[in-house]
Every structure is written in C-alpha cells, then in structure tokens.
Amino acid sequence: MNTNILLELLENNARLTTQDLADILHEDEALIKSEIQQLEKEKIICGYHTVINYNKALKNEKVMAFIEVDCTPQRHKGYDKTAMKIANYPEIDTMYLLSGDCDFLCLVQGKTMFEVARFVSDKIACVEDVRATKTLFVLKQYKQNGIVMKDEEDVESTRLVVTP
Amino acid sequence: MKPLSKTIENLKPSGIRKFFDLASTMDNVISFGVGEPDFDTPWHICENAVYSMSEGKTHYTANRGLLELRKLIAEFHRIRYDQHYNPENEILVTVGGSEAIDLAMRAMINPGDEVITMDPNYVAYTPAIEMAGGIPVIIPLEEKSEFKLTPEALKNAITDKTKAILINFPSNPTGGVMTYEDYEKLVPIIEESGIYVVSDEIYAELTFDGEFASLAQFPSIRDQIVVINGFSKAFAMTGWRLGYVMSNPHLSSAMTKIHQYIIMSAPTPAQYAALEAMTNGLSDVSHMHNEYMNRRNLLVSRLNRMGLKTNMPHGTFYVFPNISQTGLTSEEFCNRLVEEQRVACVPGTAFGEKGEGFMRMSYACSMDNIIEGCDRIEAFLASLEQKQEENPSNRS
C-alpha cells in the first residue's frame, strides 16, 4: 500500500470513506482500516479538521494573532523544553521553531483582542527563558491549508454541462 | 434565398448538442459530460499571458507561431516522447488541435479520397473529413479488444483510394490506448500502403499505467505521420485555444499556407501563456495526472461494483461503461438518468453507432461529485430493477 498517497488523500478530504479509499488505492477495505488505525496510533495522523472561513462564519467573534517569541535556549535541551511549556496552552493553535529574527512563531486564537493580549502578557511573556514577544493581529485571512478564502458565495459554474 | 453548401447541409448535427440542450435546462445536475479538465489553468501560466500583454506583446506572431515556443515544443516532444521535429519547418502552432485536424484534412484530401477513421470516435473527425471533400471509411472498434486498432481491421479498410487514417489514442470517448507493441504491428501495413496517419495525441500526457507511444516513434514511417497535440488537456488550457501540428516539411508548408490565409497566427497572449506552460508547468501536469488517476480508480471500481461493466481505461479522463445489460439503449439510459437522478453522462451513440450500449463519463470533476454521482446512478439502477420486477414483460 502506498501510505503517502493515502495520507495525501485524507489530508485533502478527510470525509472519504474507507471504501472510497480502498477503491482509489485498489486495496482491500480492511487493510485500509488497519493502516489508518496504525497511522493514528503512531501519531502520523494527528486529527481530522475542517477548514473554516471565520471571516464569514463568526463576524468579529474570533481574533487570530501571530506571536513571535524570542527565548534563550537551554543547555542540553535546546528550545524543546521551553517550546513545550508554550505549546501546551490550549490557546496556541499552531507553533513552529524558525530560523531568523525570532525563535518561535505561534498562532493564537481568542475571542477578543484584549483576551489575546492578556494571554501573551500574562502567560507567554512570563514563561521561563522567554526574552521577548511581539504580537501581530490578523486583519483578514486570504488562504488556509491551500484553500483560498472567498468572500462571495460560489457562483454558478460557468463550465458547460456537456461538451465533446 | 439561395441554397447553402450541400456539404454543410448534409453534415449530421453533433449528437452531443441534443443531449446538452436537455441537460443544461436542469438544476442540481452532477455532470460527467464535460470533455475538458475541471482544473483552472495554473496561475503562473495566466500571469505570464497578462504580463505579455502589459509588455505590448499584442501583435501578430510569425504564421507558424513564436519560434521560441516551437523550439520548446520540439524539445518537449524529443525528451518526453522520442518524437523528433524541426521547429523551423516542421511545427505549426494552431488555434487548438481542432484547427490542426482541419488543416491536415484540407492539405491532403482530393475529392473522392478515402480517409479511415474509427467508431466510436471524437465527434469532429468525420465532419472534418467530409468538409474537406473526403469520404470517411469507418473501422468499428470493439470492447473485447479494449477499443484498440488491430492490424487486420486496418488492412481490410485500406483501398487504392485511401489517402490517410485519422486516429486518436488515448481515445475520446473510450479511454483506449495503443502501446508501442500494438503500433509496431501496424507499421508494415502503413509503410507498404504509403498512406498518411493523422494522429491526434491531445491526451498523450494523460496516459496511465505505462508509457505513451506514438507511430511517429518509428523512423521508417516518420514522414507519413502527422502528429497533432496541444495545451488544452495536459495544462488545463482549453479556453486558450492553442494546439500544434508536426509533420514532414512538405506537408507542414501546405498546412501553413492554409493557416496563413484563414488564421494568420494563433492568438499571441495564448502563445506566451504556452511558453510559460512548457517552461515551468510540468509539475502542474504531474499533479493533475495523479489526481485523475485516483478519480479513475474510484469511478471504475464503483461502476463495476454496481454492475456496469467498465474496462479500466489507460488514458484520457473518460470511462466508457457498458450499460447494455439494463436493456435500455444508450440514449434511453442517459435521458432517464438525467431526468430521474440529475446525472449527466453522454450516450455512447453520440460518438458513432458502435457506441450503442455504452455511455461516456468524464471524471474531470471533483471526487465529491464522483461519489455523489455514483450514489445517484446506483439509485437509478435500483429503480430500474424494481420496475422490471413489477413489469417483467418489459424486460428486453
């Protein structure tokens, strides 16, 4: 079985059934099921999410911010220990270690700007070895996970229904 | 009013037109009827066309098309398909593959010449032969031989009057392909008879489970072959209308003569888009290729499981399921399917008489549509079965 194709298919559309996946990959459905279970167990598949355009779904009820975090790495541990202290906060949606001017880049979601600001000043800034933070609020999201967020509803496709 | 051209008056209207008129009046239709990629043209290709216009590249080009583009086409075909053509005098850039088919027919046919073509085939071939004054000679293709052209059939169709044969592999509508070994058996017949082969290879990049093969790969008949290809299917550029035709210099000059009188040169922005496509678009092609293959696997598995016998096609984005066991004709099946379940498939008969008992389904649509469409077809088959149980006498 080609696990990479299986992962790619699920990444693009987690709603495909195991039967659909079996059809696409020309494999037995039972084998697909066990492979997915194994991938979940190994934490290669870490969850199944929906891509939501919050610009439209909840007007102004959700704010997102990118937090740049500078920290002092620890002897023997590097960045990982500090990273876990930050990543464990449920407010942190996504987090990376980066090259360049800042060390961590965290995506934080909150109900209000004030809530996000307080989270940064009260929690992140106070984590041991964190030297500085910089908060960048998201004004508008244009694309997520490869999907362009559109303001207008799907217009009727202009493709012809039947062509030679 | 004076009468119009007899040739045109006598042309049969396209069978697809009738079905289009029916399907396009309905809402919530899942369409498997579309003969073009569902992908939009990759953005970098569009962007290069826009840039070329802003740079003032809006004039005619050379009749044959931009030399830079022809050089890229020659290189592409040399590397990918082992086909060798000189960009200076053997390649002509056309308005889609469609123009190239027309040019090839007009350049080679004298009144009364026979041109062999297949059934089922793409709807434009027979009219193209007739409009050029030729007489179409039809070779029926069989499901049992995977809709391939066999040496016996070719031999039997050739007469003293045969000027050319018009082939299309991978094939619309059947998805059939010819391998190198399949073609090898045709080579002696083609060589001996001296006929031209017009090979419409527009789906070459959409070859699955093996390598694309072409008669132009055989040096002994290379000068008899006319290769037609284009950007529409491989790069999702149908609306740009850009194709090309490659042949020996003598035939290429003849086609260029027609092209310069009726077209002048293919649209310039489209040629700049094509330059970008050939330079940086190969990863797009491979992405789409893989996506089509996944969809094909899903669709063929589902159709076979629901009892519609379907060959695994090795090319294009079409499948050609056999619906004859339902007892309905292709047209009845497709009309009722769209009326009762809002699923549009094209009756096989739109592509010739031998298409009876089949329908063409294009999987150039989203995976979600394939799943939903198959659910509806399943429901349709179940309702057919139920009706037959209620009225067993209706079974034909």
Automatic annotation (TrEMBL), chain A:
The keyword Manganese does not apply. The keyword Coiled coil applies. Residues 67-141 form the Transcription regulator AsnC/Lrp ligand binding domain. Signal peptide: none annotated. One of its GO terms (molecular function) is sequence-specific DNA binding. GO terms for biological process: response to amino acid. One of its GO terms (cellular component) is cytosol. InterPro entries: Dimeric_a/b-barrel, Tscrpt_reg_AsnC-like, Tscrpt_reg_AsnC/Lrp_C, WH-like_DNA-bd_sf, WH_DNA-bd_sf. Residues 7-42 form a coiled coil. Keywords: Coiled coil. This is AsnC family transcriptional regulator. It comes from Dubosiella newyorkensis. The lineage of its organism: Bacteria, Bacillati, Bacillota, Erysipelotrichia, Erysipelotrichales.
